[in-house]
Amino acid sequence: MTVQPTRTDIPARTAAVISEYRGLEGPLLPILHGLQEEFGYVPQESYQVIADTLNLSRAEVFGVVSFYHDFRKAPAGRHVLKLCQAEACQSMGSDKVAAKIKQLLGIDFHETASDGSVTLEPVYCLGLCACSPSAMLDGELIGRVGDDEIGEMLEVIRT
């Protein structure tokens, strides 16, 4: 369970994560994953601390965070719903599933509901191609997503 940081404790907690991974070859990605685990996202306040420690520019750190979709720049909702948008799922109607879920939740991809209940994210393969369209809710894979599965996911999100 992540504890939301205050602006004053981000540098110290960032330094602690950096010290854990700094000795690895190519430590930037492990550090960013560690920060995401620590905070639930990668705080902008940590970019300069990372840059100074690894002799990188702040822009290089930001570039890596923004390139990889799994790194969040803000805290996620209580639930995270990932909808597969890869070709196999598209061929089986993932666009319609996504449109319906977006409409029901009132949010788009990369957004969090105003009540903080859910963050909606696109992914580009969950490995369930034979069970398309697929989704992942809080780490649990869901195949053959249709109206019943959408209803079940929304019930979980709303509790």
TrEMBL record:
**What GO molecular function annotations does the UniProt record carry, in alphabetical order?**
2 iron, 2 sulfur cluster binding; metal ion binding; oxidoreductase activity
What remark does the entry make about the cofactor? Binds 1 [2Fe-2S] cluster.
Q: Enumerate the InterPro entries for this protein.
A: NADP_DH_HndA-like, NuoE-like, NuoE_N, Thioredoxin-like_sf
Tell me any Pfam family this protein matches.
Answer: 2Fe-2S_thioredx
Q: Which CDD domains match?
A: TRX_Fd_NuoE_FDH_gamma
Q: What residue stretch is flagged as signal peptide? A: none
Q: Does the keyword Iron-sulfur apply?
A: yes
Keyword Signal on entry: no
Q: Its domain of life?
A: Bacteria
Annotated protein name in UniProt:
Formate dehydrogenase subunit gamma
Its source organism is Mesorhizobium denitrificans
Higher taxonomy? Bacteria, Pseudomonadati, Pseudomonadota, Alphaproteobacteria, Hyphomicrobiales
